[in-house]
Design a protein that fits this description.
It comes from Oryza brachyantha (malo sina). This is Purple acid phosphatase. The structure is a single chain. By secondary structure, this protein is of the alpha+beta class. It has a domain of 226 residues: Purple Acid Phosphatase, chain A, domain 2 (4-Layer Sandwich). Helices cover 15% and strands 25% of the residues. It is built from 6 helices and 26 strands. Strands 1, 15, 16, 17, 18, 19, 20, 21 and 22 form a 9-stranded mixed beta sheet that branches. A 7-stranded mixed beta sheet has the order 14-13-12-23-24-25-26. Strands 2-3-9-6 form a 4-stranded antiparallel beta sheet. A hairpin with a 2-residue loop joins strand 7 and strand 8. The protein binds 2-acetamido-2-deoxy-beta-D-glucopyranose (6 copies) and fe (ii) ion. The site of fe (ii) ion has 7 residues, from loops. The site of one 2-acetamido-2-deoxy-beta-D-glucopyranose has 5 residues, from loops.
Amino acid sequence: MAGRRGAGAAVAAWWCAVGLLLGACLAGQTSEYRRRLGSAVDMPLDADVFRAPPGHNAPQQVHITQGNHDGTAMIISWVTTSEPGSSTVLYGTAKDNLNFSANGKHTQYTFYNYTSGYIHHCTVKNLEFDRKYYYAVGIGQTVRKFWFRTPPKSGPDVPYTFGLIGDLGQSFDSNITLAHYESNSKAQAVLFVGDLSYADNYPYHDNVRWDTWARFVERNVAYQPWIWTAGNHEIDFAPELGETKPFKPYSYRYPTPYKDSGSTAPYWYSVKRASAYIIVLASYSSYGKYTPQYKWLEAEFPKVNRSETPWLIVLMHAPWYNSYNYHYMEGETMRVMYEPWFVKYKVDLVFAGHVHAYERTHRISNVAYNIVNGLCTPVHDQSAPVYITIGDGGNQEGLATNMTAPQPAYSAFREPSFGHAILDIKNRTHAYYAWHRNQDGSAMAADSMCHPILAADGRLLRQFPVIDIHTDDSWCCGYST
Ligand SMILES: *[C@@H]1O[C@H](CO)[C@@H](O)[C@H](O)[C@H]1NC(C)=O
Ligand SMILES: *[C@@H]1O[C@H](CO)[C@@H](O)[C@H](O)[C@H]1NC(C)=O
Ligand SMILES: *[C@@H]1O[C@H](CO)[C@@H](O)[C@H](O)[C@H]1NC(C)=O
Ligand SMILES: *[C@@H]1O[C@H](CO)[C@@H](O)[C@H](O)[C@H]1NC(C)=O
Ligand SMILES: *[C@@H]1O[C@H](CO)[C@@H](O)[C@H](O)[C@H]1NC(C)=O
Ligand SMILES: *[C@@H]1O[C@H](CO)[C@@H](O)[C@H](O)[C@H]1NC(C)=O
Ligand SMILES: [Fe+2]
C-alpha cells in the first residue's frame, strides 16, 4: 500500500514540477493512505516510560527550554517529591568538571485536591554559543546528569535542524512519535506547537498526568530545548473545581524567556536560534486590537533583522488554514487580526497544531477582503507563508479523519496520520522540510515529504517550493533551480 501511494505521489510531484515550470502549482493532494482508525490509548500509570528515577528525592521530569532571546541561556526545570532539596544546577563544558553553578528557585501549586511536587527552575546564563554543556541536578542528594548543546551564534547561513511536534499527549502512539523523532540524530531542538499532556481529559484534570507526561518526554527534553506554545489543553480552566486561573499547571511547570523579548506574559514571545527567528503566539490569550499581545506583535515584527535571521517562523496552536472538519474556523479570528502583518513581513512558515492530522498549504493569503468587496477567497501570494498543521503527535483523542471536500485550492497536501516533521535549515536560501508519518505497528521507518523553500534572503525573493515525496527518509529531495 505504501509503495502504491509512493508511486502516485511521485507522479503528482512530477506534475507539480511541470506546473512549476509553467509558473503555477495549484493542485492539492489528499493522501489515500489510511492509518488504522480508532482512538489512541493512553499508556497506563505503570508504563515503563512513566517510572520515577531511583534514589532518595531524585530529580524527575527534567526539561530544558531556551533561556533568553539569543540562545546563550537555558532554563533547566525538574521536580522533586519527598522534600524540596537543592535548586542548584552544576554545569560545565567537560563531563567531569562541572565547575560552574547557578541557583534556581522552587515552587509548588495545588489544583483542586492535587498538590504538586517541588518544581525547580534554574536559568543558566552567559553560555558560549555552539558548545556542549554537561549539567547536574539533585545536588547533595540523588545527583542526575544530563547535557545539552547551545545553538551557534545567529547568522544568515548558520544551519540548524528543528523538530516539529504537536498535540503529543501520552498514548502508545505518542511514544512511537517521540521514538521516531529521536531516531533522527540530526534534530537539535523541538518547536512544540501546543497541547502537551492532555491531563485535563481526566476526571478532576488529574494533574498526576502532568507528572507522567513530563517523565515520559524527559528522555528527549532533558537534552534538547523544546520551545513551548500554549494550546487549549494548557488552559485548565475549571470553575466547577474552583480552579479559575487559566494556564495554572502549565505556567508553574513550563517557563519561557518571554521577558527577554519584551513580552508581558509567558504565552507569547520570541527567540532567535541560529538563522531562525521564532515568534510564538497565544491562541488562547486575547489578541484583538489594543491587547497586550497585539501591541507586542505589532512592535515585534519590525525588530526582526532578516539579514541576521532570514528564516521567520511563527508558532501557534489553532491553525488559520485547516480543511479538516475539526476545529474548523477556530483560527479565523486571529487570522483576521494578524494575517496582513504576516504577508507584509514575509513570514516563511507558520506551524500550528490542534487538528490531529497533517496539512500543508501553498503560499497563500486572504487579506484582500474588507467586508464590502467580496474578495474572500485565499489567493496564491509569494509574500505569504506556507501554513503547516502538525497536530498529529498521537494523543488519546485520536486522529482527525474527516476532511472537507473537495480539497480547497490553497491546500497542498493533507493526510490524517500520526507523525512529526523535521525542518533542516541549510543556509539563507535553502531548507529541507520533511513530514514523517508513523507507520502502523512498531516500525520507525516512514515516508517523508520534502519541499525545499527558497527563503527570504536580504532581498526577500521567493520561489515556489518544489514538492516531492519519497519513501526513504534518510534522503531528502534535491533542489531544482
Ligand atoms: C571551569 O573549568 C574550565 C576548564 O575546564 C575553565 O576554562 C573555566 O574557567 C573554569 N570556570 C570556573 C568558573 O572556574
Ligand atoms: C480527588 O478527588 C477525587 C474525587 O473525590 C478522588 O477520586 C481522588 O482520589 C482525589 N485525589 C486525591 C489526590 O485526593
Ligand atoms: C516507549 O518507547 C520506548 C522507545 O521505543 C520503549 O523502550 C518503551 O518500551 C515504550 N513504552 C511503551 C509503554 O510503549
Ligand atoms: C542586521 O544584521 C546584520 C548581520 O548581522 C548586521 O550587519 C546589521 O547591522 C543588522 N542591522 C540592524 C539594524 O541591526
Ligand atoms: C464529516 O463532517 C461533516 C461536517 O461536520 C459531517 O456532516 C459528516 O457527517 C462527517 N462525516 C463523518 C463520516 O463523520
Ligand atoms: C545553500 O544550501 C544549498 C543546499 O545545501 C546549496 O546547494 C547551496 O549551494 C547553498 N548556498 C550557498 C550560497 O552556500
Ligand atoms: Fe488543541
